[in-house]
Amino acid sequence: MVRMGPDVPLLNEYKQEFFWKRFPQTVLGGPRFKLGYCAPPYVYVNQVVLFLTPWLFGGIGTLLYQLQLLQELHATVLSGMLMFGAAAGVQALALYADQRTGTVERLGAPNILVDDEDVEFTHCVSSETVRFIAPGKRFGLNVVLHTMLAGVLCGFGTWYVFLGRLTALYDSIGVSLVVFVLSWVTLCIAEYSLIVNTAAETATFHAQDTYEITPLTRPLYILIFIAVDMADRFSGPAPELQLASQVLHVLFLFLPLLWALGILPPLDALLLWGMEQTLVFGLGGSPMSSNLRLLLMFGTSAGVAVCNYFIPSTLGVVLFSISTGFLLSLDLSQVGTLCRGPRAAFGERGFRRGGSSTPPPSSFGWNLGCRELLLYLSLLLVAMSEAGLLHHFLGSAQSQSWFKGPQAPVSYLLLVLFCFCWALREIQGAYVVGGVFLNPLYPKGMSNVQTFKQRNRGLYIAAAIRRVLLYLVSPFAMIAFLSLDKSLHLLHRVSLSVGFTRAFRVVWQNSEDALLQMVVVVLVRLSAGNDMLPGWDNLGTGVQLLVVGLLMDRVTQFLTKLKFTLTVLVTSWTEKKQRRQSAGTLLALNASLCPLLLAVVTLSALLSAPLLPLFTLPIFLVGFPRPQRSWPGPVGTACPCPDSIFYQQMSGSLASALRTAFARGSLGSLAPGSHFLGRFQDRMVWIMILERGYGYCTVNIKGLELQETSCHTVEARRVDEVFEAAFERPERLGFTQGFNLHWANALTPCAALAVRVYSDARNVLSGIIDSHDNLRKLQDDFLKALVWLLLRHCVQKHKGFLWINEEGPGVGGRKSQSSHLAQTTSNQPPEAVVVESNVSSLRFRQDSSSLTSFGDWSDEDDLFGPQPARRTVALVTAEAQLGHASLQAGASLPGSVGMDSLFENMALSALQPLQPLGLGIGMPALDKGRNPEIFRESPGSLPQLNFNCPQSEVFNLPTGWRTAPLLTSRLLQLRSLFPDDWFRFSMGQFGPAVQDETSEDMTKALKEDEALKELHTQVALSCLISLGAESAFTSPSYVYRLYCGDIPWTEGLDWLSSSKELYQLALRAFRFSFKLLFDQASLGPVESPEELFSTLEVYERDWYIGLVTEKGWHDSVLQEKPFLFSLGQDLAMGTYTGRVLSLQEQLIPLSDTQFTPQPPSTSPASDIFCPFSWTCFEEAGWMFVSRYYYSKKSISKVNYIKKFMWKI
Question: CA 998 to CA 1009: how far, in whole Å?
Answer without folding.
Answer: 18
